[in-house]
Write a structure and sequence with these properties.
It is built from two helices and eight strands; from the N terminus they run H-H-E-E-E-E-E-E-E-E. The chain has 187 residues and is mainly beta. The protein has an eight-stranded antiparallel β-barrel.
């Protein structure tokens, strides 16, 4: 319940703040110019595990400073310390709100639904669902007229330290992401 209240407060603050100032309106801006595609990817290779992650996202500028959108994630992990190697797949969807606070600095809140797989033995895996409410902030660095790189840090309010025998899809309540956006960023 506390997570829901915090989420609603952040949404209300973002909406109220988005109405401040005369330059915040996108009235007359074509629909296609309000769409902000983006996302990120990741990969890693080691002697014990390989992984690949693809996270496309799409947003819609409600105002010049407030964007609503959603992202999707596909993650493939190969654990090499099992024989044969164990291959796992995770899927996630995360609707979000992003508010430009000042120039390139933004706040973001989101809910992530994650369907993940984890090993319980060399030949058996379990698939579970995990919901996370996250909030935090970030920075977008423009690299051209409509292209920008972003980095953000979110706090996972749903994180619980796993007890012995449990598995968590996150090893910390802090989630750091980076990626690319294309379109109108509100600055």
């Amino acid at each position: 319940m506390l997570r829901f209240i915090i989420c609603m407060l952040l949404v209300i603050v973002a909406i109220q703040s988005s109405g401040q100032g005369k330059d915040n309106s996108l009235k007359g801006t074509p629909f296609k110019e309000r769409i902000v595609p983006g996302g990120g990817f990741g990969f890693g290779f080691s002697s014990s595990q390989d992984y690949f992650s693809l996270s496309p996202s799409i947003g819609y500028m409600l105002t010049a400073r407030l964007m609503a959108g959603t992202g999707f994630t596909y993650r493939f992990t190969k654990y090499k310390f099992y024989t044969p190697a164990l291959k796992l797949k995770d899927y996630a969807a995360n609707p979000f709100l992003r508010f430009i606070v000042y120039r390139n600095i933004f706040l973001q809140t989101e809910y992530e639904y994650l369907n993940y797989e984890f090993p319980v033995s060399a030949s058996e895996t379990i698939r579970e669902d995990f919901g996370s409410f996250m909030a935090g902030g970030g920075f977008i660095q423009p690299i051209g007229k409509k292209l920008g790189l972003y980095v953000m840090a979110l706090y996972n309010f749903s994180y619980k330290t796993p007890v012995a025998g449990d598995y968590s899809p996150y090893n910390s309540p802090l989630v750091v992401r980076a990626g690319v956006n294309y379109g109108n960023f509100g600055f």
